[in-house]
Every structure is written in C-alpha cells, then in structure tokens.
Amino acid sequence: MVKPILCNAWPQDLPADRALVRREDRAPGDGLRPADVEMARVLKTAPLRMAADPSSGAIAQWQHGALHDIVEPMTHHVIMTYTGAMQRLERRAGRSVAVGTARIGVVTIIPAGTSARWDIAGTVDVLQLYLPQATLARIAGEAERGTPSELLERTGYPDPTTARLLLSAGDVLDGSEALDALFRQQVTELLATRLLAAHAGSQAVLQPALGGLSPTALRRAIERLRSDHDADVSLAALAADAGLSRFHFCRAFKDSTGLSPHVWLRQRRLEQAMAMLRDTDVPVAQIAAALGYASQTAFAAAFRRLTGEAPRDWRRRVR
Questions:
Q1: Of 169, 199, 171, which is closest to residue 58 (Cα–Cα)?
Q2: What Gene Ontology terms describe what this protein does at the molecular function level (predicted)?
Q3: Residues 226-248: pLDDT tens digits?
Q4: Which of 4, 79, 98, 253 could form a disulfide with 155 if both were Cys (CB 3.0 to 4.6 A apart)?
C-alpha cells in the first residue's frame, strides 16, 4: 500500500525519495522546483500540516507573514484558498499586474511553470493544493475531453465551490490514515474536475458516466473496503479492481450504493467502532489504533463529528 506522507517538518528535511518530485524524475535543465520546496523558501516557514500522496500531489496548511518575493516556476499547479483575515494580494509578471484580496470564498491559482513577484503586506492563513499536470491530463482523458487547456492564473478570484472543496480536504490532514487518504484522493479528483470546468483556457462540461457498478465489481469494491485497516483502499486500487478509471468509478460506486467510497468507508469504521465500544472493554486508544487512526485524539474527534458524543461518553450511555 502506498501511504500518504504526513509531515510537520520543513520540506527540505524530507528524504529525496519522499519529495513531491524526485530530482531524478525531473528533466535536465527544466529549472522547476517542487511546489512545497518553493513555498517554504518564499514563505520562510514550515507548513503547519501537510499530507502528500505520490499519485495525486499534496495538500498543505500554512500561516505566513508578509511576502515580497518572486515565486519561481514550480513543478505542480498551486491552488489555494484562505481561512484568516483579509489581506491585499498583488502579483506582477512583466508589465502585467493582478490585484486581489485574500478572504474566505476566493481562490488563487499559480499554474505550473509560471513565475511572478508577489507582494502581501501581512499575515495570511492559507490552504494549498499542489496538483500535478498529469492528474489534470488523466481526468480530462477519462472524461473524454482530450488534452486539457492550460490553467488560468487567478488572484483572489471568487469561487466558493472550489474554496469549499479545498477546505474540506484540509479538514482531514490527519486522522485515520486510510480513511482520510481516500477522502483526499476523492476531493483531489473533484477539484481537478472543477478546475477543468471553471479555470482552464477553454472551459468544458464534463459528463459523468451513467449507471452503477456490475454486481461483481461492486462485490469486489465492498470486500476491499471491508478488509483490514492496513489494506490498500486507495481510489486507484478500487478503480483497478472494477476495471474503470477513478473518474468513472467514483460516480458508478455512488450510483450503486448511494454513497461515495469515502462515506461508505467512514460509515463502516463507525459501525466497527460502535461495536467495539459497546461489546468489549478494549481501551479507546486501542480501538483507535485498530481502526487505523493516527492517535486517540484523532479518533475521538472523528467519532464526535459523526455522533455528537465522545467515545467514552457513548460507551457509558449504551451499556
């Protein structure tokens, strides 16, 4: 199973084989930096939280101070939204100047390979998605759209839909490794689809596949999702079992079950947790570990979001 990278460390301290783009995978002389490395350089700080998946890029949460620097070309598209107080944004590239405001409900897009000078006067709380061009190309192909157009530069551009999607991914930067990784993969697919529809040079309407999974494909998907917490329940593995692209698998699974793969797995884990709390004396910390949560705190927070109660309180009430 390919596990996501969770880090609270300075990106340059990561081993070379865990970076977003390995040095040996970059074309000679391309001069592009991995997005997380370039962001750390210009923001002069480390991300508060970050989760990276080699197949779908990374999501990072930052809080940084004033910025007056040139952002050099990066290997990934950077899509960001904001969670804190408003700040004026100014982007300069040659004679072109774009001005916007960092605030809730807007997005900023830095297409891969582009460079500009940024001027931001004060503190910014921001969530960033580092999206590989390969992901955009794959989703465009799976949706039978052909070669995707280049993403447009955006500076504080109003787009509540994209902002909400990105914020939802930020809510699960830690927790149950398999469950939250599956959710981030699904959200990344949705974000890429949204970018193609609303922020590409020629906007497209992407038509979802019609119809659900075959009985055999649905059985295989359910068996994988029901397996032990350390099994590979990535979107790629689920789609491969069904013989479908990830784009079409998500839609077909929901047509068949009424739930997305992530929501189905979340319900399954909740049922397992409730059974263990109700029928056994296993400590909450051990239940959290058995279900694949990074910590007892992460498990308790997830359980409370779904039930409105802490695990211990729920256990006392139902016994």
A1: 169
A2: DNA-binding transcription factor activity; sequence-specific DNA binding
A3: 886 667 888 888 988 888 888 78
A4: 98
